[in-house]
Design brief:
162 residues, alpha+beta, 10-stranded antiparallel sheet
């Protein structure tokens, strides 16, 4: 009986740790486990207006998409953007457009409620929605042989904490 209680406690600990995870440490995956999305607190020196850095990894490939989430004005929304191999240094609008994979509002879902992405320091959302991500990916430079080849879901569920 004692062994069973210890086993159950051990199984509950990861769930409890995930339940207390802060948004800036959250790790999400799409339904098929082909895509992993990590959020990190933005480096204030990199982008003063960013609230999060986004890192998307694609299973069975070396492809990594980088991006960020920042608030918008005059309507407060959590706008996200993901890039693939953008050039460093001074870039033109055309170069940025070419390496942009997805851009849009990042929504969250917890307890059946749809909302904007929680602020830094808040408990991580159970799910994140990137509307149109699959379509953006398929139409981008990140799609094809040696890159992403599996169409992702636009919904990512919390799977871990950094």
């Amino acid at each position: 009986m004692k062994a069973a209680a210890i086993l159950l406690l051990g199984l509950a600990l990861p769930s409890a740790a995930i339940a207390e995870c802060k948004q800036e440490k959250a790790i999400y995956a799409d339904r098929d486990g082909a895509y992993e999305l990590r959020l990190e607190a933005a480096d204030p020196d990199e982008a003063a207006s960013s609230s999060y850095r986004l890192i998307m990894a694609v299973k069975n490939s070396t492809l990594k998409l980088d991006g960020f989430v920042m608030g918008s004005e005059p309507v407060d929304r959590t706008n996200g953007i993901l890039f693939n191999n953008c050039p460093d240094g001074d870039t033109t609008g055309e170069e940025i457009q070419k390496c942009t994979v997805w851009e849009g509002v990042v929504y969250s879902s917890s307890g059946g409620k749809i909302d904007l992405l929680p602020k830094t320091g808040s408990v991580a959302a159970a799910e994140i929605l990137l509307p149109g991500f699959a379509l953006g990916l398929v139409d981008s430079t990140a799609w094809g042989t040696g890159k992403a080849t599996v169409v992702p879901w636009d919904v990512f569920s919390l799977k871990g904490c950094q």
